[in-house]
Design a protein that fits this description.
The chain has 355 residues and is an alpha+beta fold. The chain has 7 helices and 21 strands.
């Protein structure tokens, strides 16, 4: 018995170390910092009266989507019901008819329907399309100032394994529209700048894309291995997300049929954000892993983004995390393929009126 004592002790020690590592990675919340935006880049607080609103939402470029030979069969599935006027124009028309006078329409704001929102600074329209045997939810967003494009952390706290559902975080911040973010708390590396506050400067190993939201509302996709978080912050970056990859860069698709997120299936629930023009954005969430929706590959997601005119687009955390919330209601059908319902996440990206 004595000769086995050391082996038994070593085995127990190894088991304990393994359990601790798993708990530290997935369960135990650590590196906690309560959010304090008093040190934020002051560029986020732009003069709203002097900020010019972006032009109205452009028409969906379904023809461009159809022209891609690799998408011909998918377009037949889209059931897109192409609209001749943008959803934004329709929303404006509702505002005008409600007031009866263009000059007095601001007094009627906000105007809210099941699929749209409009006030003096924010216009949102949501549509559901069917493509690639998948239900896809697309939110077209125009804001008068980049300050309305915001992020929020679970429990208002920065740290690993600090989590809550997208809908809960959205409700706490009175979000009009929200999607899950990059789940920064799942790892200890990757640039993190949120609402003009620099939280993490450690880059992910290897070549990885990060999305930078600049003070003028424009998007830029950078390689973390060739960038510096402090330099991005010093240059005025308001948000930096670390997940990826970039889907659209300078109007061109940046992924291929072989592109995939590590440990992910080829077709998944997806979440992505794109820029059509500065202050004109597109939020996309797709269902997946169900009999109703197969899910999207990264290339399919990029093709959807490009068809809506995105000049820059970026893949966010997907799978069970993929969630869109509009006016307090979950729009899509979140699932990890095993159980239905929202997964708790570290952060959200949202549109909100309160600055």
């Amino acid at each position: 018995m004595k000769k086995h004592t050391f082996a038994i002790f070593y085995t127990l020690l190894l088991i304990a170390a393994t359990v601790w590592s798993l708990l530290d990675t997935f369960v135990i919340a650590d590196k906690i910092t309560v959010v304090d935006e008093s040190t934020a880049n002051t560029s986020i607080f732009l003069d709203l009266e002097n900020a010019s609103a972006s032009v109205g939402a452009s028409e969906n470029n379904v023809e461009a989507l159809a022209s891609d030979s690799g998408l011909a069969s998918a377009v037949n599935e889209l059931a897109l019901s192409t609209v001749s006027d943008s959803a934004l124009d329709e929303s404006v028309a509702v505002a005008d008819s409600a007031s009866g006078d263009d000059t007095e329409s601001n007094s009627e704001f906000p105007i809210i329907t099941e699929t749209s929102y409009q006030d003096a600074n924010i216009q949102i329209s949501i549509e559901t399309i069917r493509a690639y045997d998948t239900d896809i939810y697309i939110a077209d967003v125009v804001v008068s100032n980049v300050a309305y494009l915001k992020t929020a952390l679970a429990q208002n706290t920065f740290g690993t394994n600090v989590k809550d559902t997208t809908s809960t975080i959205a409700a706490e911040h009175e979000a009009i529209l929200a999607i899950n973010g990059d789940y920064y708390g799942f790892r200890n590396t990757g640039f993190v700048i949120r609402n003009g506050v620099l939280y993490r400067t450690a880059a992910r190993s290897g070549s990885n894309d990060a999305l930078v939201v600049q003070a003028d509302g424009s998007f830029e996709i950078v390689d973390e291995s060739r960038s510096d978080a402090q330099a991005l912050y010093d240059a005025g970056a308001l948000q930096v997300f670390s997940f990826g990859p970039g889907l659209i860069e300078n109007g061109e698709i940046a992924v291929t049929s072989d592109s995939e997120v590590s440990k992910s299936r080829s077709s998944n629930p997806r979440t992505a954000i794109g820029m059509i023009d500065p202050l004109h954005y597109i939020f996309v969430v797709s269902d997946g892993r169900t009999s109703q929706s197969a899910g999207l590959s990264l290339l399919e997601l990029a093709e959807i983004m490009q068809s809506y005119g995105a000049t820059e687009a970026y893949n966010l955390d997907g799978g069970g995390s993929s969630t869109m919330v509009f006016n307090g209601e979950v729009v899509n059908n979140p699932t990890d393929g095993r159980s239905n319902g929202e997964r708790r996440v570290s952060d959200i990206i949202y549109i909100g009126e309160n600055l």
